[in-house]
């Protein structure tokens, strides 16, 4: 066959064709395996190259980070240096501002103090001018109700200032008090003495000078107390106010309403203050209301009908003699009634209260009877009060406020004297 001839020509033995084919297949398979290995090697090389690139990129990143870290470190160092420099500058600036602030505060304080002094002098001068004019007006009014002349104004003005300084009160208050007493017909010396006592009362209680003057007038006139002993009224008011829950204005208000009646029916000023304190502590009514109630009780008690009632109920008479021409002191009558009050029944107490006080003042009378021990306590405090007012005044004079007021009055007197000299 032609094919066989070719094979023979090529030197291939057909008898071994199968073996040759097997060898060829083996070689082809081996070549195929070699190709696969070559392909795998290529893949490994590609992967190795990719890994190398990645490693290179990583190394580059690390290098970049190191450079960045170095740069950051340099930047941080620079910022720290700048911060230190800023701190130094800021501290220097703060010190400069502190120096400037201290200087501003110093000069501001100096200016404020200087301005305050200037304003203070201006106020003193302005007030002194007004005081000079007001005093002249008051002295003129005083000359109308007394025999003083304008030539005596200067001397009297000096006396007013002396009293004002000793009492720490405005000189116009002194002049006003003197005028009140002078209008009641008293001499200048008597008016000055009473004004002095009024000033003491004002300092102790805070009651306005003119009101205190009116209270004193009502008391010493009602109880016939000599002017030179009128300070004892103040002693009593101070003592009772200090030892009970009733203030001096309430005590004074009651005296104004019932003082003259008390004297007429035989109730002393000590007993009256005791009654006012006892009733006031329970009812908390004003001094004026208590005074009006006591006046009603005093007047209603001293009647024939109530004499019979008290005789029958408590064995007490209101008369000092069998002819019934003279009353016993009402203070004694009320004291005796208080002793027997708690032994009486409720109905008997009610009948006596309505008879002696009426329905409107019923509560006031029962308050007095039920608290008569407090009335006796306050009465004793009043009776033992000699010197209490002056002692309180001495304590007041030690206060800083009092001394400052005295200093202001002294300066005001200097300016007023200057104006009065220029006037003359």
Structure description:
The chain has 424 residues and is mainly α. Helix content is 82%, strand content 0%. The chain has helices at 2-9, 17-145, 153-167, 171-183, 188-205, 209-222, 231-243, 248-265, 269-283, 287-301, 304-314, 330-341, 346-357, 362-370, 372-383, 388-397, 400-423. Helix 7 (231-243) runs parallel beside helix 9 and helix 9 (269-283) packs across helix 14 (362-370). The longest helix has 129 residues, at 17-145. The chain is elongated and about 185 Å long. The N and C termini lie far apart (180 Å). The model has no long low-confidence stretch (mean pLDDT 81).
List keywords for this structure.
82% helix; single chain; mainly alpha
Order of helices and strands: HHHHHHHHHHHHHHHHH
Please give the alpha-carbon distance between the first and last residues: 180 Å
- Which term fits the overall shape? elongated
Percent strand equals: under 5%
Look at the helices and sheets and give the structural class: mainly alpha
User: Gyration radius, to the nearest Å?
Assistant: 58 Å
Number of strands: 0
Largest sheet: none
- Helix % is over 70%
Topology of helices and strands:
Elements: H1 2-9, H2 17-145, H3 153-167, H4 171-183, H5 188-205, H6 209-222, H7 231-243, H8 248-265, H9 269-283, H10 287-301, H11 304-314, H12 330-341, H13 346-357, H14 362-370, H15 372-383, H16 388-397, H17 400-423
Summarize the structure.
The chain has 424 residues and is mostly helical.
């Amino acid at each position: 066959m032609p094919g066989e001839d070719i094979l023979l020509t090529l030197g291939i033995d057909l008898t071994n064709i199968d073996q040759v084919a097997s060898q060829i297949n083996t070689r082809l398979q081996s070549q195929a395996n070699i190709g696969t290995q070559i392909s795998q090697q290529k893949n490994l090389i590609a992967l190795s190259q990719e890994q190398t690139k990645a490693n290179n990129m990583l190394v580059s990143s690390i290098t970049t980070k190191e450079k960045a870290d170095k740069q950051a470190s340099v930047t941080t160092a620079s910022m720290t240096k700048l911060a230190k420099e800023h701190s130094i500058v800021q501290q220097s600036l703060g010190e400069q501002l502190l120096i400037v602030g201290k200087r501003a505060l110093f000069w501001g304080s100096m200016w404020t103090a200087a301005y305050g002094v200037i304003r203070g002098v201006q106020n003193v001068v302005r007030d002194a001018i007004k005081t000079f004019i007001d005093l002249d007006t008051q002295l003129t009014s005083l000359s109308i109700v007394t025999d003083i002349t304008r030539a005596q104004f200067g001397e009297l003005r000096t006396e007013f200032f002396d009293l004002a300084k000793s009492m720490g009160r405005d000189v116009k208050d002194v002049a006003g008090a003197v005028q009140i007493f002078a209008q009641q017909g008293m001499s200048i010396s008597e008016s000055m003495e009473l004004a002095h006592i009024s000033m003491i009362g004002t300092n102790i209680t805070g009651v306005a000078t003119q009101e205190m003057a009116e209270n004193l007038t009502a008391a010493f006139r009602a109880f016939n107390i000599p002017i030179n002993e009128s300070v004892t009224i103040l002693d009593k008011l101070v003592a009772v106010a200090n030892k009970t829950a009733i203030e001096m204005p309430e005590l004074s208000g009651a005296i104004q309403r019932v003082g003259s009646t008390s004297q007429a029916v035989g109730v002393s000023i000590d007993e009256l203050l005791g009654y006012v304190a006892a009733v006031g502590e329970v009812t908390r009514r004003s001094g004026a209301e208590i005074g009006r109630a006591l006046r009603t009780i005093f007047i209603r008690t001293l009647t024939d009908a109530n004499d019979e009632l008290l005789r029958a109920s408590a064995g007490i008479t209101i008369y000092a003699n069998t002819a019934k021409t003279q009353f016993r002191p009402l203070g004694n009558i009320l004291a005796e009634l208080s002793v027997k009050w708690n032994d009486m029944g409720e109905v008997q107490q009610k009948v006596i209260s309505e008879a002696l006080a009426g329905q409107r003042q019923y509560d006031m009378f029962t308050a007095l009877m039920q608290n008569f021990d407090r009335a006796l306590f306050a009465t004793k405090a009043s009776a033992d009060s000699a010197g209490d007012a002056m002692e309180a005044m001495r304590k007041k004079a030690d206060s800083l406020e009092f001394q400052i007021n005295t200093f202001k009055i002294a300066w005001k007197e200097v300016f007023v004297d200057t104006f009065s000299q220029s006037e003359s």
